[in-house]
Amino acid sequence: MEVTFDMIRSSPEIRTYITQADASLTALGFTEHSFAHVGKCAHVAAQILTELGYTPREVELAQIAAYKHDIELARIAGYMHDIGNVVNRHDHAISGATMAFRILDNMGMDPSDVAAVITAIGHHDDSTAFPVNAIAAALILADKTDVRRSRVRNKDMSTFDIHDRVNYSVERSEVLLDVESKTITLSLSINTEMCAVMDYFEIFLQRMLLCRR
Q: Which of 106, 183, 204, 213 is most buried (most C-beta within 10 Å)?
């Protein structure tokens, strides 16, 4: 069965898991992981593969192309990648991939497409992340580059921790792909009166090294 991104985005089941996962992270003091975050990850992951020349699914099937890891699957992986937080923040990539398997299998998604999505979800978390395929790489880049002021939910600036300060200091954020030079750039404008540049590198250096991989 053809399971599309629109079907995933409108699923009450998936939306419930995203909502509750974000509620748990709010209680734990984490930045926003709700529909704004997963929506942006879905968009950026698909945009990266689009700019790299990956062909949409319907064209691939018509041409009997070898690639099954297409733009639509990147969108789906981006939208579902954090549902495992509904179980626990710890190992949420693994629990999220397991949940995604059950959901997508029940929706009738083709096993090869299920495999592509859960592989990306299972490999996106910082501690165990690895770009095992194109969709996983696109998801990692989309997830780790989502740095923005609107992710900060703490309203009391006097109690900001370093993650709050860094995210809140970002006034502009853009992911730029240059296919010819083979570079992906995270372009940020940061208010240095609120956060020193070194504060950014203190918490994001490992993520940026992961993105380079």
A: 204
Residues found in the chain:
213
Up-side HSE of residue 204: CA atoms within 13 Å toward CB?
A: 23
Give the per-residue pLDDT at 139.
97
Question: Would you state the pLDDT for residue 155?
Answer: 87
Q: What is the pLDDT of residue 64?
A: 40
Which of the four pLDDT bands, split at 50, 70 and 90, describes residue 142?
A: very high
Bridge partners of residue 184, in order along the sequence: 177
Q: Can you tell me which residue has the tokens 């062909």?
A: 55
Q: How many CB atoms lie within 10 A of CB 129?
A: 22
